[in-house]
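Objective 1b of the project was to move from sequence-level analysis to a structural picture of ligand recognition. The entry below was assembled by the postdoctoral researcher (A.K.) and checked by the PI before modelling. It contains the amino acid sequence of the target and the SMILES of the bound compound, glutathione.
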Amino acid sequence: MSAPLLIVGSYVSPYVRKVLVCLESKGLAYEIDPIVPFFGDDDFARLSPLRQVPVLVDGDLVLNDSTVICQYLEERYPTPALYPTDLGQRAQARWLEEFADTRMGQVIIWQLFNQLVIRRAVWGKEPDQALLARTYEQDLPAIFDYLEGQLPESGWLFGAPSMAEISLACFIRNAQFARYQLDAARWPRLAGSMARTLELPAFARLAAFELICTHTPIAQQREALRQAGAPISSRSFGRAEPVPGVMGRD
Ligand SMILES: N[C@@H](CCC(=O)N[C@@H](CS)C(=O)NCC(=O)O)C(=O)O
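Corresponding predicted holo structure:
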């Protein structure tokens, strides 16, 4: 029997979530080594040259980057399809995925979630209040204004849930962890689309494990997740103390 797919990375990371939702949607078995970024050991650095999560290990194959991993899973396990078949729509879905990973990643992860949650927990640093103010007043509204113009009033962008909505919702989930609630009166299409997406069974199945991570000290998360029934791998690439990443972020 071949080894199950292994995902390295915490349930709290939106990039890891993207891959987990993809696996859950396709009904694929997997194990997870839920390490928090910056807590990877030397073997992790060999698997992930940017010292970032997620990493997918499929036998001898090691893949980095959530988009690369999701496209691999889509090509290897095509049903149910998570990218539209029409070429134009497929490219559009990829753009929204890219927009989520790049711009929402910058603003929601690094300027909001990292400032309010990770930075304090990992490095003991206080948030940058000027950056937070700019994030709430300018950067988040600009992102949401753009997405409001892209999304349908009801239903799915491409007729069925796709990686476009899944990618966007992965970041909205982290905004929720940072106690940011989308204003549904100001961005009704976005709020409706994200609520529908976050209610998908694949997202719902991860919610209990995400909650454990956001409420448990980092050192105890692995055991707490195992006790809650998460498919925790026997081998971990984690280490006890954080080390700065190679991307110069903290
Ligand atoms: N483009 C990558 C981005 C992954 C990423 O930024 N992961 C974060 C976790 S949310 C990370 O590992 N950060 C550590 C660092 O950048 O040093 C992807 O799509 O997988």
